[in-house]
């Protein structure tokens, strides 16, 4: 899958008053790739860094206004998997890496009964689980505890509030391939120094901003990977 990272940064340079901190050259010949990859989308989150082993990253938030992509707000600090980004198609269950690629975002979740969002929202209750048992028939699915025989799972209403607010990243969800990774979310971080098991995490303030901004009519996407990972697809 091609990446739109170089194009998004190029467009941002000509359409905003602040300049993202990424300074990699952006080839002009890749300008057409944005419409090829996101022809039906008008909202994009780009999660990137320059080191595949780093646990820190930045989130760039873009929206399409008319025919132009512009930043919706300033870059956001984030943390990713404790072992950094996995190269495309190399993410596996339990490897501690965040998958790279382009994925839809279709549902938000949290502990409150309702939150301010245009997106579909699901309240996480005490009996809600996300299955990470690779041998279970409901692998990589959100289920009720009484509905599963899985031996391993994520509790969706955690005591540490990391899932107080979240967005499901549709990685390995359609189709689901056993062993390729599960429960990949954008959620609340435990601090800038705290890595995740493979998710992307930002401050509570920033995830609330993102959740309120997202619009299902815009068919939002998230792009994840190092600058080299997303750039190689243009070569």
SSE arrangement:
Elements: H1 5-15, H2 33-38, E1 43-48, E2 56-65, E3 68-79, E4 101-110, E5 121-123, E6 128-131, E7 142-144, E8 153-155, E9 165-169, E10 185-188, E11 200-202, H3 204-213, E12 221-224, H4 227-232
Parallel strand pairs: 1-12, 4-5, 10-11
Antiparallel strand pairs: 1-2, 2-3, 4-9, 4-12, 6-7, 6-8, 9-10
Give a brief rundown of this model.
The chain is of the alpha+beta class and 235 residues long.
What does this 3D model show about the protein?
- This protein has one domain (5-232).
- Helices cover 14% and strands 29% of the residues.
- It has helices at residues 5-15, 33-38, 204-213, 227-232, and strands at 43-48, 56-65, 68-79, 101-110, 121-123, 128-131, 142-144, 153-155, 165-169, 185-188, 200-202, 221-224.
- A hairpin with a 2-residue loop joins β2 (56-65) and β3.
Which structural class best describes the helix and strand composition?
alpha+beta
Percent helix, as a range, is 10-25%
Parts with pLDDT < 50 across at least 5 consecutive residues: 1-32
Helix/strand order, N-terminal first: HHEEEEEEEEEEEHEH
What's the mean pLDDT score?
Answer: 85
Q: Give the count of structural domains.
A: 1
What's the Cα radius of gyration? 17 Å
N-to-C span: 12 Å
Strand tally: 12
Question: DSSP helix count?
Answer: 4
Oligomeric state of the chains?
Answer: single chain
Which keywords apply here?
single chain, about 240 residues, alpha+beta, nine-stranded mixed sheet, three-stranded antiparallel sheet, 4 helices, 12 strands, disordered N terminus
